[in-house]
Write a structure and sequence with these properties.
This protein is an alpha/beta fold. It has 20 helices and 18 strands.
């Protein structure tokens, strides 16, 4: 059954034409992945379907009675509500029914005779309706969704306005799932979710009774849930059956077939054009009008021919190639009994790690487990409380942090690039063009760049550096799928060592040969890609349930310090770093360490 249909939908914002000819259908229990580059109009399609915006032309048909739920990238909800009230709003009709039942119970205690019999009949009918709508399962449903999305009891008691952006997204996603609309529109639902929560969501959506349409750059997520892919490109869209991996194979095959058809047509056109020219020549030489008539007839056939556009096999993407750096020694890093925490909260405890030249190592773990902290410790932006970190000989590091910042945010893109790499303006613009900075884009101030543009600029800088160790913290954040795949191509050709933190499971599968799971303040090693890690971990979890004695012991927490004592410790370290910065004002590592400590002090 068709739930929603779009037919020749177009949409403009001023002079900017975003959608030109969008036509596709959403059927009952469809699992659709809506993909395309940044700015191609995917979110605009969702807003049109949800009734937030109107199409300029075309038709949007929604089956009568269909309820549409829309999770936006930036959730909107009244701030003063506590989280448990936000979630409970999914059952507002049931709550009204409960209120009516309570009132009838009070009335029945004071009625008799025919009035009592009539009220009892009404009460029975409403109670049956309450049961059919799942009234006795409300708390179980809320707990199931909250457990899956890691919305803790403490979080449920907090005011919605006090939540972080990621927490707000999880709560509104929980509300959408509890409302169970007929059509669920999810715009980048995997943002702000750790892997465990994401896998729970995948299973939930696979079993969902309604229709699901998802905008996502997470290819692994699309592989797990999608049964159909709709790609938005150049204002139009095209549908493919299957998940993301099946889409890539089908699209490649279709492009090759279209290109072969295009080449065949071009051969026919050239042959016809040559025949027309030859017949005209023969007609002129022999002064024979028959040849001119045949040429004219053939020209009419040629003019009526529907000419195919040349298929674009390689669209404009980031073209990445790392500079050849001198190799490091075999031992890149050696970490022994590393311990670090903030106050009485341990992050790492007696953790051990070795990293050898040429390895591709992914660091995974739940949010807050210490993945980014490890990178900062290795880069000397933080100091370990105990343990040893030894960097190998001739190691030259290139680092792309999760939130990219530049030394001078007032600089333009061009100035920022030339500040890190000595070259002419023309050479710089040629290199920046490979990262999609064209024309006037190179004069934009870096403070005005989006997250994706910042990542592209930082990667452009890294490509030119003489490095043999790449340290990447969530490198695929803010990048569209095309850009991610070009980054993967470049990383596969990088000759040095790669250590990276990522939630992108598809990216991990393609790049990593070893996975480090940060669990219980230590590192657990898996010699394979993400799928290998996932399989092995599932086996370990099953074994632990059967034999609890196999469970790794957590390190004992240190004696709890008062908030005042912890604050005092941090202040002493801040004062020490501030004094060091007076002697070395241009030392960016010292400044970064100071910023991290100040952030911890403010949070405390």
């Amino acid at each position: 059954m068709i739930e929603i249909a779009l037919n020749n939908v177009s949409k403009s914002y001023g002079a900017d034409l975003v959608l030109t000819n969008i036509s596709f259908e959403m059927h009952t229990k469809d699992r659709i992945g809506l993909i395309g580059g940044n700015g191609t109009g995917k979110t605009t399609i969702f807003k049109i379907v949800a009734g937030i915006e109107n199409a300029d032309a075309g038709d949007v048909m929604i089956r009568k009675g269909v309820r549409v739920g829309y999770l936006q990238q930036i959730p909107v909800y009244p701030d003063e509500y506590p989280v448990h009230q936000v979630l409970r709003a999914a059952f507002s009709q049931l709550d009204e029914l409960t209120y009516t039942l309570r009132q009838l119970e009070q009335q029945m205690s004071q009625l008799s005779g025919e009035q009592l019999a009539k009220t009892l009949k009404d009460y029975g009918r409403l109670q049956q309706e309450f049961e059919e709508q799942g009234g006795y399962e409300v708390d179980a449903q809320i707990n199931k969704v909250c457990n899956g999305l890691q919305i803790t009891d403490e979080l449920r008691d907090r005011s919605f306005e006090l939540l972080s952006g990621g927490e707000q997204t999880r709560v509104i996603l929980g509300l959408m799932l509890l409302q169970q609309p007929d059509v669920l529109l999810l715009d980048e639902p995997s943002n702000h979710l750790d892997t465990q929560t994401l896998e729970w969501l995948e299973e939930y959506l696979r079993d969902y009774q309604g229709t699901v349409c998802v905008i996502s750059h997470d290819r692994y997520f699309l592989d797990q849930i999608a049964t159909r892919i709709i790609e938005v490109e150049d204002g139009e869209c095209k549908a493919y059956f299957g998940n993301y991996s099946q889409y890539t194979k089908e699209k490649e095959q279709q492009l090759l077939e279209e290109f072969a058809q295009y080449q065949d047509q071009q051969k026919k056109i050239k042959a016809m054009e040559k025949a027309i020219k030859d017949m005209k020549d023969w007609g002129n030489r022999a002064d024979n009008p028959k040849f001119h008539k045949r040429a004219a007839s053939m020209q009419k056939r040629l003019d009526k021919m529907t000419r195919m556009d040349r298929p674009v096999l390689d669209r404009q993407k980031i073209h990445l190639e790392f500079a050849a750096g001198k190799r490091s020694g075999n031992d890149v890093y050696s970490v022994e009994d590393l311990t670090f925490g903030f106050g009485d909260q341990p992050i790492l405890h007696k953790a051990n790690l070795t990293l050898s030249y040429g390895e591709r190592v992914a660091i995974v773990g739940s949010n807050g487990s210490g993945k980014s902290t490890l990178l900062k410790l290795l880069l000397e932006e933080l100091e370990p409380q105990s343990g040893l970190i030894k960097r190998g000989s001739r190691v030259k590091i290139g680092y792309c942090q999760q939130q990219v910042l530049f030394a001078n945010e007032e600089f333009s893109v061009l100035e920022t690039f030339r500040d890190s790499y000595a070259c002419t303006a023309g050479e710089a613009r040629n290199m920046l063009a490979k990262f999609l900075f064209y024309g006037e884009d190179v004069f934009k101030k870096v403070e005005a760049l989006s997250g994706g543009e910042r990542s592209r600029l930082r990667l452009c800088q890294l490509m030119q550096e003489d490095i043999n160790l790449l340290v990447l913290d969530e490198p695929t954040n803010h990048l569209d799928i095309d850009s991610i795949e070009m980054l993967e191509d470049a990383l596969e050709g990088f000759r040095g060592t790669i250590l990276f933190v990522s939630h992108d499971r598809y990216f991990i599968n393609r790049i990593a040969k070893r996975v480090l799971d940060v669990v219980n303040y230590r590192f657990q090693e898996y010699l394979g890609d993400y799928d290998y890690y996932r399989t092995k971990k599932a086996i370990q979890t099953a074994q632990t349930k059967q034999n609890p004695a196999l469970k790794l012991d957590k390190p004992q927490k240190k004696v709890s310090l008062s908030k005042e004592n912890r604050s005092e410790q941090l202040e002493q370290r801040i004062i020490k770093l501030e004094q060091e910065l007076l002697n070395h004002p241009k030392d960016s590592r010292l400044q970064q360490r100071l910023d991290n400590l100040l952030a911890a002090w403010v949070e405390l």
